[in-house]
Amino acid sequence: MRAAYISGYGGAGQVEVGEQPLPHVSSGDVRIAMKAASVNPIDWKTVKGDLKALFKPPFPLMLGSDGAGVVESVGVGVSEFQVGDEVYFRCHKLNTGTFAEYFTLPAELVALKPQNMTFEQAASIPLVGLTVMQALSEKGGMQAGAKVLIHAGAGGVGTFAIQYAKACGAYVATTASKKRNDLLHELGADEIIDYHSQNIEDKLADYDIVLDTLGESVHAASYKTLKKGGVLVTVLGIPDNDTIAEYNANFVVKLVARLHNRKMQKRAAKYGAVYKHHLMYASGAQLTEIATLIEAGKIKAVIDSTYPLDQVQSAFERSMTGRAQGKIIIRTA
Ligand SMILES: NC(=O)c1ccc[n+]([C@@H]2O[C@H](COP(=O)([O-])OP(=O)(O)OC[C@H]3O[C@@H](n4cnc5c(N)ncnc54)[C@H](OP(=O)(O)O)[C@@H]3O)[C@@H](O)[C@H]2O)c1
């Protein structure tokens, strides 16, 4: 089968597309004939070697973290899915490779594709959808009526986060360039802060949750928008100590993480707030919940651009600009 992979770390130019063996179907697995997959910054960060401290996968390293397609084969013990089912999924983080004609993964990570979405639209959802649901609901404790600030509302995570928070009954502010206003209003944002000319701390107060997709540079200002006890959930930087412990990281990495997390928590406490890091995880059950919201018309796909499989390099270059509006898609069939 054709697939995108790297044989060593480097830039987007390191990505090759060529023949790779068809993935084996073990018991409990489904093999999916891929239709589309989405590009996430984690894909090119992996290519650059940014995750080496956490895990060192063998080469060739297959690329792509989520996607949508049709079940082509089911392993022993799988009863939830049948050949021909249209599905979407996020792979386990150590088993990437969705920029390919076929992909195999445990059935429990898979869900039926939202019926009102094309494969390309459905492929835009899993990684960002799970990230947002887990960061806002599990880590942030978001409830109806909560005031939520979402940084980078026009990005892959942000466009989903605005819609998800609104679907949960939250009041949503977001940061973006002015040219994104029409889209962000359409997605349901209540307040849009033009980050080029306005300061969030001058505009927003008494927020319950901040979803940080930009990193430490926005933390101090974000804390000033939170009420006492409010939570900043970041999806960037060093994971929390429990998450680090799940990886085979060495002593030095664990120590650096502990020191960093202590510093982040102290800084949050200074503002009377709480700091949390979230590293998303795969879940078929949560994707089924997300599909229900999509089929109810509460969440739609926002697609920046679509590339064929043999142009993964160009898709990565587009993502690396940091200017995508919504998701970048790879058409795999
Ligand atoms: N921990 C996890 O599990 C997890 C999961 C998913 C993603 N992430 C991380 O989250 C980050 C965001 O991911 P993404 O997919 O949303 O990225 P993305 O789609 O590449 O984000 C691009 C968007 O960011 C906006 N933007 C850039 N700088 C901004 C600023 N200073 N203020 C407001 N908006 C700004 C851009 O809008 P303008 O062009 O208008 O500036 C653009 O629309 C990535 O670093 C990714 O690795 C982590």
Which structural traits does this protein have?
6-stranded parallel β-sheet; single chain; alpha/beta; globular; binds NADP nicotinamide-adenine-dinucleotide phosphate; 11 helices; 333 residues; Quinone Oxidoreductase, Chain A, domain 1; 16 strands; 2 domains; Rossmann fold; 7-stranded mixed β-sheet
Notes on the protein architecture:
- The protein is of the alpha/beta class.
- It is 31% helix and 26% strand.
- The protein has helices at 41-48, 119-123, 126-139, 156-167, 181-187, 200-203, 219-225, 241-246, 251-270, 284-295, 312-320, and strands at residues 2-6, 16-19, 29-39, 61-62, 66-74, 86-90, 102-106, 110-112, 147-150, 171-176, 191-194, 207-212, 226-234, 274-277, 303-308, 327-331.
- Strands 3, 5, 6, 7, 8, 15 and 16 form a 7-stranded mixed beta sheet that branches.
- α4 links the parallel β9 and β10 (171-176).
- α3 (126-139) packs across α4 (156-167).
- NADP nicotinamide-adenine-dinucleotide phosphate binds at residues 40-42, 127, 131, 151-152, 154-158, 175-177, 180, 195, 213-214, 235-236, 278-280, 319, 322-325.
Distance between the termini: 11 Å
Oligomer: single chain
- Cα radius of gyration in angstroms: 20 Å
**Low-confidence runs:** none
- Write the CATH homologous superfamily of the largest domain: Medium-chain alcohol dehydrogenases, catalytic domain
The small molecules bound here are: NADP nicotinamide-adenine-dinucleotide phosphate
What is the architecture of the largest domain at the second tier of CATH?
Alpha-Beta Complex
Number of strands: 16
* Helix percent band: 25-40%
Number of domains: 2
> Total number of helical segments?
11
Please state the average pLDDT score: 97
Largest sheet: 7 strands, mixed
- Proportion in β-strands: 25-35%
Q: Which structural class best describes the helix and strand composition?
A: alpha/beta
Along the chain, the helix and strand elements come as EEEHEEEEEHHEHEHEHEHEHHEHEHE
Per the CATH scheme, the topology name of the largest domain is Quinone Oxidoreductase, Chain A, domain 1
Shape estimate: globular
CATH C-level name of the largest domain: Alpha Beta
